[in-house]
Amino acid sequence: MKPKEKLQFPKSFLWGSATAAHQVEGDNINSDWWAWEHSQKRLDFLRAHKLKPEDFCSGIACDSYNRYEEDFSLAKHLGQNAHRLSIEWARIEPREGVFNETELDHYEKVLQSAKYHGLTTFVTLHHFTSPLWFIKKGGFAEKFSVGSFTKYADMVSKRLSEYVDFWLTINEPEMYCTHSYLFGIFPPQIKSLRTTLKVVNNLAKSHNTASEVIKFNTRKPVSMSYHLSDIQPHGFLGNIAASLVHYVSNEFILNKTIAACDFIGLNYYNHHHVGLFGKRHHSHSGHEHNDLGWGIHPEGLERVLLNLKKFNKPIYITENGLADAKDVKREKFIKDHLYYVHKAISKGADIRGYLHWSLLDNFEWEKGFRPRFGLVEIDREDFLRRKVRGSALVYAEICRKNLVEY
Ligand code: BGC
Question: Is the previous residue joined to 64 through a cis bond, with omega within 30 degrees of 0?
Fold first, then answer.
């Protein structure tokens, strides 16, 4: 057997995991998602599909609103030195213009705890959820959104600056606008290209304006977490189709916002083959799939990373992970992806950190609690007990040694 190579990562590389408020905190009652999860339309849909509403309502989620100390302590004991979390706009500004001091105090305590546990912090301001009042007024489809989001960013960045090392304004603007406004999957379930384009524009403006304010208030680096996929050609005129899809899905928003970024936050999950006659849904190359049927394509991560070199900014991988309830694929998934991260570094990409999605099994949006993305299992039958998965221990070794044996 070939001896394993030791792939050393750069000094001060950040190793950690990521979560998002609505997916882990619980009781996010003033948000648009909470309202949607409890709406008659949603309940009727679940009943019609014979699905239990309790599996698809975020409810108490992982109760991380109260158990954050325990979660950060776990991350630390798992060798991690960085953590990405989001703060919930709907808690901080539950009614327009009314900022809740108690919730700001809460997040101050949360971030103090992260620091106490030695974690470098990445804080996202908007991770898919919004205050209900904001969505009722039209949300990012309307121009007022830029001012509202910037005001929230101003308030929060002034208040929490001391404990935040990296700011992320908006998570996956690409997914947010398509899932909420084009495909009608996420609330408010609109299906309109015209509205989607308005949302794209206002998200970009919100990022550009808010990042100025955050930088002025905090002097810390700011980015977005972009959802970028590896797009490969297949079939007749595949190159043209792939370039077009790459431009629309990866570069359209990136180009509008990158100037206001100090680094690039990258979320990598997908790889697609596209041709003139559409997307190839099933890989012909014998790749594995995760529990959700998504293909596992670690080599695509290298291509995505190398494509980002042209922007000349440091890159942090702010999400990468898989649904794998039995934890049979996660160890290999992590090592394979890190192999390609290392390869991209050796080809000159300035990659400075890797945050696995996710620290905990959590509320996977419209798919509910079934998909299990956690390094740590949440036992929903046993008071949300945290149970460390085997792959988390392997990842811990990688984090501690700053190297992957491959
Ligand atoms: C999102 C996460 C989500 C993950 C897995 C990402 O697109 O940012 O919130 O849980 O994908 O679907």
Answer: no
CATH code where residue 349 lies: 3.20.20.80
* Number of domains comprising the chain: 1
* Residue nearest atom 10 in ligand 1 by C-alpha distance: 364
Q: Whose CA is nearest to atom 3 of ligand 1?
A: 364
What is the tens place of the pLDDT at every residue in 106-161? 999 999 999 999 999 999 999 999 999 999 999 999 999 999 999 999 999 999 99
Closest to 361 (Cα-Cα) out of 342, 375, 344, 345: 375
From the CA of 18, how far away is ligand 1's center (Å)?
Answer: 10
CA of 358 from ligand 1 middle (Å) equals 9
Instruction: Find the 66 Cα to ligand 1 centroid distance in Å.
Output: 22
Q: Is residue 92 part of a domain?
A: yes
Q: Are strands 271-275 and 230-233 parallel, antiparallel or unpaired?
A: parallel
From 209, 189, 237, 44, select the one nearest 125 (Cα to Cα): 209
CB-neighbour burial class of residue 184 (10 A; exposed 0-12, middle 13-18, buried 19+): middle
Q: Is the pTM of this model over 0.85?
A: yes
What domain range is 199 assigned to? Answer: 6-405
List, for residues 281-294, the tens digit of each pLDDT value.
555 556 799 999 99
365 Cα nearest atom in ligand 1: 10
Query: Is residue 1 assigned to a domain?
Result: no
Main-chain dihedrals φ then ψ at residue 93, nearest 5 degrees: -130, 75
- Give yes or no for residue 48 having a pLDDT over 60: yes
Evaluate whether residue 16 is within a structural domain: yes
> Quick check: is 94 in a domain?
yes
